[in-house]
Every structure is written in structure tokens, then in C-alpha cells.
Design a protein that fits this description.
CATH superfamily of chain B: HUPs
Number of helices of chain A: 11
Order of helices and strands of chain B: EEEHEHEHEHEEEEHEH
Largest sheet of chain A: 4 strands, antiparallel
Strand order of the largest sheet of chain B: 9-8-7-10-6-1-4-5-11
Structural class of chain B: alpha/beta
Helix content of chain B: 25-40%
CATH topology of chain B: Rossmann fold
Order of helices and strands of chain A: HHHHHHEEEEEEEHHHHH
Number of helices of chain B: 6
Radius of gyration of chain B: 23 Å
Distance between the termini of chain B: 64 Å
Number of strands of chain A: 7
CATH topology of the largest domain in chain A: Butyryl-CoA Dehydrogenase, subunit A, domain 3
Number of domains of chain B: 1
Distance between the termini of chain A: 47 Å
Shape of chain B: globular
CATH class of chain B: Alpha Beta
Strand content of chain A: 5-15%
Strand content of chain B: 25-35%
Structural class of chain A: alpha+beta
CATH architecture of the largest domain in chain A: Up-down Bundle
Oligomer: heterodimer
Number of domains of chain A: 3
Largest interface: A-B, 23 and 17 residues
CATH architecture of chain B: 3-Layer(aba) Sandwich
CATH class of the largest domain in chain A: Mainly Alpha
Helix content of chain A: 40-55%
């Protein structure tokens, strides 16, 4: 494994504060020492490194932007840098932290009652409790509003029925945030302890992507929860989408890490790989063209992420800004990974180098949390005022 | 126990170093980090504080960028930081650095002052020793373990050839810490957050009379060592080549004494 050298062509690092640099460097050090040595094996075996969860909790990675309940109160830029460094090692690990933070802790903190926050946020912040987010269903991906999962109020209980699909961390969770339609057809969020009768999680096998992360299907068959488990402030699909906006923001930063890793690997490889005599392939025009495309797009993407982060810290980031961040950065990261694979030639397909794993991971990231095309439509609607979803 | 830890910011271990045109210093376009032996000294100080109570102060002498090692130390759990700051302070030698530290802490009492065994860049291993001399207190080097005893500490020193020395010494004292004696902690996000409200005081090196004028060591020239490896291609008939190989091996003393 080649040692990663920082990728910062435009000196974007000079725009970061000393504390932001410390957050980046400390996370980088943690990831390189704890994740890098095991990640290829985890991906090969299809295993999520559950043993690192308490350590991630000690690093305060979970719910890092929240201010209370044992959370670190990081800025959005600092949180973004954490995502970047985790995904530089693997998108699956970043996905785990994204889900715990943006899709489980964020909704509890934003839409939950005081009692729900007190009960769940401290153990979620340490990783003693792992959470998952159940919105997507097998027939409702880009159109979650069509979901079939229902919530019926019976006395002081709520009865949930339905199936959720493509749920990160599903089978290793103790708590699921489940989105379901109530009697009025309104989408609401519910906190479901996964040991309740009628709740079942089954892992998706045969994945070529995000192999170091758990992906499950959830089955809820007459699962009864107390009415107090309903998130009181979550109203309609809008609330669920607010969570996704939070997670998409982290993805926009995270994929930068994957892109930086792939670019740096390709650059180093092109420097020592010799063909046609004694010249490294980096001296060939076609290879340089690829490397230059990669570093240009990465530099632009770094500025985009930082700018949206600063806007978010000022409370000025619109969901469509975040769509642009997610859409652009995932697309250039995926293309960077493919080009890096190309430069590495046959070596690019083996797990001696991380690029194929990143490339396969990014195919998922391109699709989840709003596909590339859906984000096109979100931005399109924003600038034209005309929705083109259906 | 009140502890002071001296930290030095050095070029990152894998930084690609380039010399300036005068050949007098490196081009400072590299990334920096805390010198690793100093990181172990900090870790030991934090462990002593956690085990026996007290306070950990960290100090560095260096330009503005060096404050990063103090912020990291505060994030890891140090209580206070002192930065003796000034342009060109990275050019101070061991004596001037020890002098700068002494002048920065007048009247402050520390039971133990810890430094790394040596720095990752110049590797002189002198600051701790000179500091003890300037302050008129005892010191011990290459320390692997510290245990408080009445009136002082019992320490374990690493000697050569796998031997160790245990000795008791009075405090205050300066100890230079061996690398690898404990497991370094990370600066956690929570720690980084908490460090924002910890005191980091700055001392202007110039006002304190600290400059390269105090240096007792002069760098004549920095250079990249030339390649030492020589390859000789032996050609000719097998008999001639074998004779040549035998003579090369003999010249190297290999196979002699038969």
C-alpha cells in the first residue's frame, strides 16, 4: 500500500483554520492507523469492523455537529473533513458514521422529544447503541413518498407494518428510525427498538460495493411501539428529506477523500511504472491528461465542499446547494476512480491498491441519498421553478 | 504533580525535503508535526497527571506555525500552553532553545520537566540536558518509566545492550523520554473542542532576548549525501570473471582467513 500524500494543488488547506486542520489531521492519523491496515481484508470478507465502533465513539465521530449529549459540537466544515478522511479509507466506513450521525442522531436531535434525546443521544454518541434509518423500500427509491409502510395508532401504542430495503447497518442496529404513513397518509418518523417482536433484519448478500458496510432489508410485521416513540416534531416527507440533506452534505465531502486517494495512488503509480524504455508512464501525454483532469476536478470539488460548508455554518446553505455538492463531487470522484483504475492497468483490478474498491464503492454512493439524476432534477427545479420529476 | 512538557514542531517524517539555494536550511513548504519523542513525553505527562493528579503545561519555541503542536497537546488533555514565538526561531540551536524555555517560565515551579529523548529533525538530544543545567536541577535521560516516591521519582533508564538502570532522584528534575514507551492517544473531536477554551499564552522571543545570536552551534552547510552505491559489471570469460570476483571479495575481507 502506497503512503498517502496530501492532495492540495490549490492550497485549499490555507483556507482552513488551525482547529479545522487539527480535526483533519487527527482523523487522518486515526484512520490510517486503525482502518487502513484492515480495510482490504474487511472488504474481501464482506465484514464491517464492528470492533472499531467504541473507538470511533471515543474519537467523538458520532453526531459530531450536535452540541449536547456528549457530542463534540463541531462546525459543518470540521464534520466534512472527518467524512473526507474516513472515506479516503473506505466509503462503507464513512457510510456507517453518516447514518449514525446524520440519519439517526440528527432526526432525534431535531425532531425528538427531550426524553427521546436524553435516552438515545448519549449511547448513540459513544457507539454503545448503533442506529439505522428506514426510509427506502424496494419499490420506492427515488420516490420515497410512495412508501407502503404503515403506522396505525391502537390505544397508546403504534403498530408498524411494512418492509424497508437497502438499509445501512440494519442488522447490527439496536435502534431504527422508521418512516411510515399514519392513518391520514402523512409520513411520520418512529423510533423502533430492533428487539421488538415482529422486527427482522436480513442482510443483502452478493454486493460488489460497500462490502465493508452492512446493508440490510428490514421487515416490520405488527411491530408495536409505545406512542411515545413517535418523533413529535417530524412532519411529512419534508422531515425525512431534511435528514437526507444532512447526510448528502457529508457525502459531498466524503467522496473527496476517495477521489484524493485514487488520484494520489495513480500519480505515484504513474511515477514508478515504466513502459517503452526507461520512461515512467507519467511522462506520457495521455496519462498526464488523465492526471490533470483528476487534479483539476478534485481542486474544484474541494472548493465547492468548503464553500457549501461555510454557507451551512452561516445557516445559508439551501438543499439545492447540497444537491450540487453531492451530485458534482460523487460524479468526479467516480470518474477519478475509473481513470485511476485505467492508469494502474492490470494492477488496478487487484486489491493490492485501493482504487477498484473505491470505484465499486462509489457506484453505490452515486445512487444512494438521491441519485445523480434526481439531484439534476432538484437543481433544475430550483433554477427554472419547474419540477421535472414526473 | 506539576509537569512541563517541551514540544518541538518538525517536518513530517515523510516530508520531501529540499534545500534552499544557499544550502543553509530547508525550503519550508512541507507539512509539520510534533517530534515523535516529544509526543511520547506528552503522553507520559498526561498519564502521570491521570494517575496522580496535577497539571500539565506544554511549551514550544518556534514560529507561528508551531502553535499547532500546542493546540494538539491541549486537545489531548494538556491544561495550559506557552508559545515562545518569533520568526527565525526554528533556527535556534539546543542551547538557545533551552535558554528560551528558561526565560519563558521565570518563577514557575514544575516538579518534572519532560522532553523527548531527541528531536526527529536535528537529533541533538541536548535541550533537556542543557535546560537542567541552566535551571540548576538534576536530569536523567532515555527514561522509560516514572514512578513518584516521597521527595522525588524512581525512574527506569534504558542503557545499551538491553540493560536498564533504575534510580531514584529528587524533584524538580528534567527527564528526557524514550520513544515507544506508551501508546499515544489521539486528539479527539471533543478534545479539540475543549481545547478552544484552554489558555495558550504567547511570548515574543525577541522581547525575551531570544535570537540566533545566542546560538553556539553554526551550521556550515546542509547537503544531500551523494550516492554511495557503486555497481561494477564484470564481463569477460567465466575464468576471468571468477578471478575478478574472487579479488573483489578478498579486497572486502570476505572469505579471508581460509
Amino acid at each position: 500500500m502506497l503512503k498517502f500524500r496530501d492532495v492540495d494543488f490549490l492550497q485549499v488547506g490555507s483556507l482552513l483554520s488551525p482547529d479545522e486542520l487539527l480535526v483533519r489531521d487527527s482523523t487522518r492519523q486515526w484512520a490510517e492507523q486503525n482502518l487502513t491496515p484492515i480495510i482490504e481484508t474487511c472488504a474481501r470478507e464482506g465484514r464491517f469492523p464492528l470492533e472499531l465502533v467504541p473507538e470511533m465513539g471515543r474519537m467523538s465521530f458520532f453526531g459530531a455537529t450536535l452540541r449536547d449529549f456528549g457530542c463534540a459540537g463541531m462546525s459543518n466544515v470540521e464534520y466534512g473533513l472527518v467524512m473526507q478522511e474516513l472515506e479516503r479509507v473506505d466509503s462503507g466506513i464513512r457510510s456507517f458514521v453518516s447514518v449514525q450521525s446524520a440519519l439517526v442522531m440528527f432526526p432525534i436531535s431535531t425532531f425528538g422529544s427531550e426524553e427521546q434525546k436524553q435516552r438515545w443521544l448519549p449511547p448513540l454518541s459513544t457507539g454503545e447503541v448503533i442506529g439505522c434509518f428506514g426510509l427506502t423500500e424496494s419499490d420506492f427509491g427515488s420516490n420515497p413518498g410512495g412508501m407502503r409502510t404503515t403506522a396505525r395508532h391502537v390505544g397508546d401504542e403504534v403498530v408498524l407494518n411494512g418492509e424497508k430495503m437497502w438499509i445501512t447497518s440494519g442488522s447490527i442496529s439496536q435502534l431504527a428510525v422508521i418512516w411510515a404513513k399514519d392513518e391520514e397518509g402523512s409520513i411520520r418518523g418512529y423510533l423502533v427498538e430492533t428487539d421488538r417482536p415482529g422486527f427482522r433484519a436480513e442482510d443483502v448478500h452478493g454486493k460488489y460495493s460497500l462490502r465493508a458496510s452492512v446493508t440490510s432489508g428490514l421487515v416490520l410485521q405488527d411491530v408495536r411501539i409505545p406512542a411515545g416513540n413517535e418523533l413529535p416534531e417530524a412532519r411529512g416527507l419534508r422531515s425525512a428529506l431534511q435528514c437526507l440533506s444532512q447526510a448528502r452534505y457529508g457525502i459531498g465531502w466524503g467522496v473527496l477523500g476517495a477521489a484524493m486517494q485514487c488520484y494520489d495512488t495513480a500519480l505515484q503509480y504513474a511515477g514508478f511504472r515504466k513502459q517503452f524504455g526507461d520512461k515512467p508512464i507519467a511522462a506520457h501525454q495521455l496519462v498526464q491528461q488523465k492526471l490533470v483532469w483528476m487534479i483539476t476536478e478534485i481542486s474544484k470539488a474541494q472548493l465547492l465542499a468548503l464553500h457549501v460548508g461555510r454557507l451551512k455554518d452561516q445557516g445559508k446553505a439551501d438543499f439545492s446547494h447540497i444537491s450540487m455538492l453531492k451530485r458534482n463531487n460523487v460524479a468526479i470522484a467516480l470518474e477519478t476512480a475509473r481513470l485511476a483504475r485505467d492508469i494502474l492497468g492490470a494492477n488496478g483490478i487487484a486489491d493490492e491498491y485501493p482504487v477498484f474498491r473505491h470505484m465499486a464503492n462509489l457506484e453505490s454512493v452515486n445512487t444512494y441519498e438521491g441519485t445523480h439524476d434526481i439531484h439534476t432534477l432538484i437543481i433544475g427545479e430550483k433554477i427554472t421553478g419547474l419540477g421535472a420529476f414526473y | 504533580m506539576k509537569l512541563l512538557v517541551c514540544l518541538k514542531q518538525v517536518p513530517a517524517k515523510d516530508a520531501p525535503l529540499k534545500l534552499n539555494s544557499a544550502g543553509s536550511w530547508i525550503v519550508e513548504d512541507v507539512s509539520y508535526e510534533v517530534s515523535e519523542p516529544d509526543a511520547y513525553a506528552l503522553e507520559e505527562a498526561l498519564r502521570q497527571k491521570e494517575a496522580h493528579g496535577g497539571e500539565v503545561t506544554v511549551i514550544t519555541v518556534g514560529p507561528q506555525r508551531a502553535a499547532q503542536v500546542l493546540r494538539e497537546a491541549l486537545a489531548k488533555g494538556a491544561d495550559k500552553a506557552i508559545h515562545v514565538e518569533g520568526d527565525g526561531t526554528q533556527l535556534l540551536d539546543s542551547f538557545a532553545t533551552a535558554e528560551a524555555i528558561t526565560r519563558a517560565i521565570p518563577g514557575q515551579h514544575f516538579d518534572l520537566i519532560l522532553t523527548g529523548l531527541q528531536s526527529d529533525d536535528s537529533g541533538a538530544a541536548q535541550v533537556g540536558v542543557i535546560l537542567a543545567e541552566l535551571m540548576g536541577i538534576p536530569h536523567a535521560t532515555i527514561i522509560m518509566q516514572i514512578e513518584p516516591v516521597p521527595g522525588g521519582v524512581r525512574v527506569k533508564r534504558e542503557l545499551e545492550g538491553g540493560a536498564f538502570q533504575y534510580l531514584e532522584m529528587p524533584t524538580p528534575a528534567v527527564l528526557t523520554i524514550q520513544s515507544g514507551i506508551n501508546k499515544l492517544r489521539y486528539a479527539t473531536l471533543m478534545g479539540i473542542k475543549q481545547a478552544k477554551s484552554k489558555p495558550l499564552s504567547k511570548i515574543n522571543a525577541e522581547t525575551d532576548g531570544i535570537s540566533v545570536e545566542l546560538n553556539r552551534l553554526v551550521i556550515e552547510r546542509l547537503y544531500v549525501p551523494g550516492a554511495q552505491k557503486k555497481t561494477e559489471r564484470i564481463t569477460g570469460t567465466a575464468k576471468d570473471a571468477a578471478a575478478r570476483i574472487a579479488s573483489v571479495l578478498k579486497a572486502q575481507g570476505i572469505g579471508a582467513g581460509e
